[in-house]
Design a protein that fits this description.
The chain is built from ten helices and ten strands. The chain has a four-stranded mixed sheet. The radius of gyration is 21 Å and the shape is globular. Bound molecules: flavin-adenine dinucleotide (FAD).
């Protein structure tokens, strides 16, 4: 076993950290306050390879893997969780199903433009009536000659209004639940694709979240990704990667909380000494650090197993469960360590606390991660 990152991985981590510190951190609060989608940051991130981390070099991508993506996402999310989720969705949910299941034609058509950030991807599984129970989805895709006609509604789609393509899951047969679902690459300028208004959210406010509707949206048969009626497998295997992305996002938020807490506890003086001298504060910092390191080990392991293409369903769920609960623990403790200052918008920890909350909800709630883990160990 080797717990050290390779020289290459350390360089990628350092590049992402420098980029996050220099370009993202100075504008993060303002973007979040105004709910501004981070277009400008994506333009700057793309030349570093961050929009196409998993895309093979032959299609213009960085040709790296999930461990490298995780390292980059941790650093980006340390500065801004809205920019972090934008890039997580672009890489894990947007490009990855095309890389794994796409035809040569689909790869050539979409991946090079996704790598440059010109084309943003989104992923549409959730509907008003189905979230955790994703296989109960009701959107339909009816075959009509050499086309499919999509109808239905998808809820809370991250960057659904900013994307050029959306990976959409819809029912192509009457077969029950997971059996009748297919996956499509839908170009968002197709007539009948309608993006609704932006949701007004608690956190990650610079990431856009919208409802999308399909109103007799006619796509060519070539838009089918993978085989007909085998789409649910694509949805789930894509989410395994997405969960590693959200675990990385959680670690980034947790690290930001710890850094802010260390700084503040050394500066803030009460009872004649910096509050870092009090054991109650030290214990909080020690617990935060320990949980962050445990989250990293689980997340790196899940990412490495995904890179090796071995079963990582359990690993991805454990990584997300541990990391997202760690982010929320660290955010709560960071606000507590800051006292009244932590409750104000003058300090970043209130943003971290609002941002952390989503990590336990999207790409499978904490309860669903526990369910997946229990199913795996009970057999
Ligand atoms: C900001 C944001 C961005 C999102 N982005 C996307 C996106 O890009 N694409 C997309 O497809 N979806 C997206 N989602 C949807 C997200 O994945 C769902 O919200 C999530 O899966 C939970 O589904 P739900 O909200 O319907 O909750 P529900 O499934 O209704 O769950 C409600 C509660 O019941 C619990 N629960 C449900 N079933 C069980 C069970 N069997 N055992 C124990 N507890 C259970 C849940 O854990 C939760 O606590 C996004 C959501 C948000 C808020």
């Amino acid at each position: 076993m080797d717990f050290e990152l390779s020289e290459e991985m350390r360089m990628i981590q350092e590049t992402a950290r420098n980029f996050a510190d220099k370009e993202i951190a100075p504008v993060a609060s303002e973007l979040e306050r105004n709910g501004t989608f981070p277009h400008e940051l994506l333009k700057k991130a793309a030349p570093l390879g961050f929009c196409g981390m998993l895309i093979p070099e032959e299609y213009g991508g960085a040709g790296l893997g999930n461990l490298a993506l995780s390292l980059v996402l941790i650093e980006i999310n340390r500065a801004c969780a809205s920019t972090g989720v934008t890039l997580s969705v672009q890489n894990s949910l947007g490009t990855s199903p095309i890389i794994k299941y796409g035809t040569e034609e689909q790869k050539k058509k979409y991946l090079p433009r996704m790598a440059t950030g010109e084309l943003i991807g989104a992923y549409a599984l959730t509907e008003p009536g189905c979230g955790s129970d994703a296989a109960a989805l009701t959107a339909t895709a009816r075959k009509d000659g050499d086309h499919y006609v999509l109808n239905g509604v998808k809820s809370w789609i991250t960057q659904g209004d900013e994307a050029g393509i959306v990976i959409v899951y819809a029912r192509t047969s009457d077969a029950p639940k997971a059996k009748g679902i297919s996956c499509f690459i839908v170009e968002t300028d197709t007539p009948g694709f309608v993006a609704g208004k932006k949701e007004d959210k608690l956190g990650i406010r610079a990431s856009s979240t919208v409802e999308i509707r399909f109103e007799d949206c006619k796509v060519p048969a070539s838009a089918l990704l993978g085989e007909e009626n085998k789409g649910f497998k694509i949805a789930m295997s894509t989410l395994d990667g997405g969960r590693i992305g959200i675990a990385s996002q959680s670690i980034g938020i947790a690290e930001a909380c710890l850094e802010a807490s260390i700084k503040y506890s050394k500066e803030r003086v009460q009872f004649g000494k910096p509050i870092a001298h009090f054991q109650a504060i030290q214990w909080k910092l020690a617990e935060m650090k320990t949980r962050i390191e445990a989250s990293k080990l689980l997340t790196y392991k899940a990412a490495m197993k995904r890179d090796l293409d071995v079963d990582h369903v359990l690993d991805a769920s454990m990584a997300k469960l541990m990391s997202s609960t760690t982010a929320n623990f660290c955010a709560r403790e960071a606000v507590q360590i800051h006292g009244g200052a932590g409750y104000l918008k003058d300090f970043p920890v209130e943003r971290y606390m609002r941002d952390a909350r989503i990590t336990e909800i999207y790409e499978g709630t904490t309860e669903i991660q526990r369910l997946v883990i229990a199913r795996n160990i009970l057999g």
